[in-house]
Amino acid sequence: xxTAYPPNILPSDGKSYYFGKILNESEEQRFFNNLLDEVAxxxxxxxxxxxxxxxxxxTAWYGDxxxxxxxxxxxxxxxxxxxxxxxxxxxxxxxxxxxxxxCLLNLYHSGEEGMSWHxxxxxxxGKQPAIASVSLGVERRFVFKHKTSAEKIELQLEPGSLLLMxxxxxxxxxxxxxxxxxxKEPRINLTFRNIKRLxxx
Length: 201
Ligand SMILES: O=C(O)CCC(=O)C(=O)O
Ligand SMILES: [Fe+2]
Prior knowledge:
Number of helices: 3
InterPro entries: AlkB-like, AlkB-like_sf, ALKBH3, Oxoglu/Fe-dep_dioxygenase_dom
Number of strands: 14
Structural class: alpha+beta
Helix content: 10-25%
Organism: Salinimicrobium profundisediminis
Cofactor: Fe(2+)
Keywords: Dioxygenase, DNA damage, DNA repair, Iron, Magnesium, Metal-binding, Oxidoreductase
Bound molecules: 2-oxoglutaric acid, fe (ii) ion
Strand content: 35-45%
Mean pLDDT: 93
Largest sheet: 8 strands, mixed
Radius of gyration: 16 Å
Protein name: Alpha-ketoglutarate-dependent dioxygenase AlkB
């Protein structure tokens, strides 16, 4: 059953909802440990100023089918769901009342790894994409920055929590996961997405 949405955390020009913890501590630990072992983690390749860079952070991409998705100017082919991911997707779909056909995963080994300012506005996601972000492992700071006013909205992403970004969030706001030297523990992030235009090989 779908729960009521919390208030929008953005003051304007987008809709983003922080649901807090949707997993209890033992579920969160079970998902973290299983995903750490069972996901096909790979160092990410991204294009920066026309050069191919291999990131410290590891990523993986799963979906309903082996469709292709362009992310950071690199095209990747999805792996098929594993049971833990299907279980987490079900939970996220119950809480949000939305449907997702793919998931991009990030593994940050410590606070030395983060994600710089970007928006997830790839054409494959459509005009007002819903992106459901689940956090496992160590708590990290997450920041939104308005594209024109530069207004910032900060939050802490707790272990087992869910953040839903939708409406015009990607159009009008950037987001980042700042690095922090103090943080020594790993974090896994899952962003459930809905790819509209499937490119199937
Ligand atoms: O790790 C996070 O919380 C953010 C991940 C993210 O923004 C992305 O994968 O596009
Ligand atoms: Fe993102």
